[in-house]
Amino acid sequence: MARRQWIEIDDAIIDHYAAHDCRCPVWRKRGKLVATGTKRRRRCARHFVEFLRGRGAIPLVEPVADDDPHMSAYLAWLKQHRGATDETIRRYRTDIRRLMPMLGEPAQWDAAGLRSAFQRRSKETPGSASLLVTIMRSYIRFLVVRGECRPALLHAVPSVQRYRLSTLPRHVDPATIERIIAACPTDRPVEVRDKAIILLLARLGLRAADIQDMRLDDIDWRSGHLTVKGKTRRPDRLPLPQDVGDAILAYLAAARPKTAEKHLFLRAQAPFRPFRSSAEIAGIVARTRDRGGIEGVPTGSHIFRHSLATNLLRAGAGLESVGTILRHSSPETTAIYAKVDLPMLMKIAQPWPGEQSC
């Protein structure tokens, strides 16, 4: 690559660097430098540039900047009028830009081209098809209002059918949860941090994003409460269990880096910054599960939340109480757990005609 001045660094140069053909070792795995691919090179370069901007070494740039005028206006609208977070804006921009080479200019779009591009993209990431529909309809609606796209195209993006209550929530029994907690050593600072995170997930059923956003002043040590904002950004006070509080105190006293950063949990390697996304919390759960040799447990950090709700329900708690503990804004969200209370379902199940009652 050609030499560049720091002031010239932008997303296009970062993408060009990430796509170059080499075996550059840019991250560590079990203490050893490991060569990696385009995605991680791009992420590492972006983190380094953001670190330099935060220290004032290079000028700050607007997070919604884009060389496409349609995209730039849309991202600014998301930020100013919709109150979207930087992470949401980055996700929307990434998904839309991946479709642009298949579509061209908005004035040239047609229904057949939109459907074809959407189908090709959804095959690459089938789990994100529903979110892609939301993103594209939002972008098309914005372009329609500005007169840069035909109104009829808003109906060209196909719907993705989702059945909220079609499956049972994944969960594990309380004994397995305790095995995962017991698999957390505390010999190194990073392990002390990981145990505090695992306990927050297991005891309070927090979302990974709740832990990612948690700050030092969210804990009221005098009253023994923890403030969590959650999806609605409305603060909720939760009681702080004794073992969770002890684990957080151990992290603050002996493992947390000495820094002015206000987030509670930080990365263990310099620069000591907060977690980039909730996927890093899921990685901590996966490492803890593998360390304890625990098999047959679904991946991800949300398994603790599902397990807490399921085990409370089976212990006799009502759906309203479970919804309060999990901070659900709607009873319909908690209704999915009604299907796991098998004794209650057995009582209300009607016998099949001509068969004995179960």
Automatic annotation (TrEMBL):
InterPro entries xrefs: CB, DNA_brk_join_enz, Integrase-like_cat_sf, Integrase_catalytic, Tyrosine_recombinase_XerCD
Query: Which N-terminal stretch is annotated as signal sequence?
Result: none
Q: Which GO terms describe its biological process?
A: DNA integration; DNA recombination
Question: The Tyr recombinase domain covers which part of the protein?
Answer: 167-350
Q: Which PROSITE patterns match?
A: CB, TYR_RECOMBINASE
Query: Can you provide one Gene Ontology molecular function annotated for this UniProt record?
Result: DNA binding
Recite the UniProt keywords alphabetically: DNA integration, DNA recombination, DNA-binding
Specify the Core-binding (CB) domain's residue ranges: 65-144
**Pfam families in the record, alphabetically?**
Phage_integrase (PF00589)
Under SUPFAM superfamilies, the record lists: DNA breaking-rejoining enzymes
* Keyword DNA-binding listed: yes
Read off the PANTHER family from this record: PHAGE INTEGRASE-RELATED, TYROSINE RECOMBINASE XERD
Q: What is this protein called?
A: Integrase
To which species is this protein native? Croceicoccus mobilis
